Amino acid sequence: MNGDSETGPCTQAANVTHPILWSYVGTITQIAYNNSVYGALTPTSLGPSDRGYCYFCGMSSAVTTMSQSIDLFPYVTDIVSGNVSFNLSAWLGGWTNQDDSAQVSVDFLNYAYQIVGNRTTIGPVLATDRGFTTSL
Question: DSSP H helical segments within 10-75, as ranges?
């Protein structure tokens, strides 16, 4: 559900364009890769070749978090029978020499909002992981 920052508008200026389908704490925006005002990442910056048009940016908040809940009840029969699996992947990055500590996690919850199984996490990505460059 907008995991790639491609749903909804992406800012082409200095304004904040909050991502849709996400809850968030801190200032988060969807920025177009060709945004000449921010200029952090461009379509040719290091990162995925199939990157799309936009990326999520935590701006200048000390801590920014995003979350979303997806109801998997329509798939309960397949889940219980073990016929499905999941694949968590993400392109994580940060700004120059800052340890932005980007990471993504997934928890599966039951209807009482209790975690079922183990949390899966990718990251954090630190400045040394990116070679002290702004990249994904």
Answer: none
CA distance 36 to 75: 43
> Tens digits of per-residue pLDDT, 44-75?
888 888 888 888 888 878 889 999 999 999 99
User: What pTM value is reported for the model?
Assistant: 0.81
115-128 burial: b if 16+ Cβ within 10 Å, else e:
eeeeeeeeeebebe
- Measured in Å, how far apart are the chain's first and last C-alpha atoms? 20
Per the structure block, which two tokens stand in for 17? Answer: 């364009």
Are 52 and 43 in contact, with CB atoms under 8 Å apart? no
pLDDT digits (tens, 9 = 90+) for 7-33: 888 888 888 888 888 999 998 889 888
- The single-letter code of the amino acid at 115 is I
Contacts of residue 14, defined as CB under 8 A and 6 or more positions apart, other chains included, come to 37, 38
Q: What is the DSSP letter of 72?
A: -
Query: Which phi and psi angles does 73 have, rounded to 5°?
Result: -55, -40
Hunting for tokens 């200032």 — which residue is that? 27
Beta strand spans in 1-136 (E): 23-25, 29-32, 54-57, 65-67, 102-109, 115-125
